[in-house]
Each structure stands twice: as C-alpha cells, then as structure tokens.
Design a protein that fits this description.
Elements (H helix, E strand, L loop, with lengths): L7 H13 L2 H17 L4 H26 L11 H24 L4 H7 L1 H13 L6 H17 L7 H13 L5 H23 L2
Length: 202
C-alpha cells in the first residue's frame, strides 16, 4: 500500500482518519446506535447491536489477521484485487452465522433486517472489486452515516463531514482514485438507504 513520505503532519492525520474511521469501527458504532434506537428506552437493542456487529467485526478482523500472518496479504486491509476478493468473501460468509445466531437467540427483527446491510454491502463491494478497487473505507463510513441519519435524525447528517475527511485521507495516502472513493460513498449510501426504506414498508 503506497503512502506519501512528504508532509508528515498531513500524512499522519490521514493515517489516523483511516484508522479511527475504519469499516470495523463504523459497523460497531452504527450497529449499537441503531439497535438502541429501535428498542428505546429499553437498552436491549443496544446490547444486540453491539454484540451482533461486534461479533461480525471480530470474525472479519480475525480473518484479516490470519491472512496477514500467513502471508496472503501485506496489510489488514489489502489493496490488491485477489486478497481483497478473498477477504470480502470471508466477510460475507462470516455474517451468516452471526445473523442466524442473533435471530435464534431472539434479536429484534428490525435490527436483523438492517443488520443485513453490512453483508449485502460487502457482497456488492466483492462484485465491484472485480471491476475496480472501490473504497471500502468510504463505503462503510457513508453506509454507517446514512443509517444513523435515517434512524436517529437529521442532525446526524453532520457525520458526512467525516466521510469527506475520510475520502481525503484515502486520496492523500494514494490508496484510491477519486472515482473509487466516490463509488464507495455512493454505494454505501444507496445500500443503507434502500435497506431502511424497505424496512419501513414492512
């Protein structure tokens, strides 16, 4: 993964943005927040959201770590097409036992429906990766922000500023092109908007 060696201050900021607004972080934040909103004021949704999204994130992170240890890819978020395809496929598969277990244990049905947005997005990114290196970071950030905005209120739309900052970081680190960053943001927004709209019609 190429990085910039000049402007160390700006490069450090870009690296921190990519680290702290990672797909894993966004999944847990969105899962917990939306879960709490669904069962408010009872905290059950928060627990389900954190446990469900957290379990999926741990499985995905475990797969990324094992792949790195075995030398399948150089970083936890591989940039090359082959490793990305493998990691995304593993992420989609990992969501199946998590959703089935949560459903079996009695998780709220609306939360399970919205929770399907994560593996659906990973699956679409898997398909998109065959054509281009769509940004996983901006896709996850836009998806999480869209869920929070549509479920918790318009005030959460301010988080789109973080999506823009994250997009800048991916460009500054030369990990993605502008088109790949934009495609990720559009895809994440569209998937979560569609899932939320579909759930509201039920």
């Amino acid at each position: 993964m190429a990085t910039i060696t000049v402007e160390p201050g700006r490069t450090r900021l870009a690296q921190q943005l990519s680290w702290y607004i990672s797909p894993h972080v966004m999944a847990v934040v969105a899962g917990g927040s939306v879960g709490w909103r669904i069962t408010w004021p009872h905290p059950g949704g928060l627990i389900w959201g954190l446990c469900g999204s957290g379990a999926w994130v741990l499985l995905c992170a475990g797969l990324a770590l094992v792949g790195r240890r075995l030398g399948w890819w150089a970083t936890l978020v591989p940039a090359r097409r082959g490793p990305r395809l493998l990691l995304l496929a593993g992420s989609v598969i990992a969501a199946v036992p998590v959703l089935l277990t949560c459903g079996r244990l009695g998780a709220p049905a609306p939360l399970l429906t919205l929770g399907m947005a994560a593996p659906l997005l990973a699956g679409l990114l898997l398909v998109g990766t065959c054509a281009g290196n769509i940004s996983l970071h901006t896709s996850a950030a836009a998806a999480g922000t869209t869920l929070l905005t549509l479920q918790l209120g318009r005030a959460w739309a301010v988080l789109y500023l973080l999506v823009a900052a994250l997009a800048w970081s991916r460009l500054h680190l030369r990990v993605h092109t502008p088109g790949q960053v934009l495609a990720g943001a559009v895809l994440g927004t569209a998937v979560c908007a569609a899932m939320t709209f579909g759930w509201s019609l039920r």
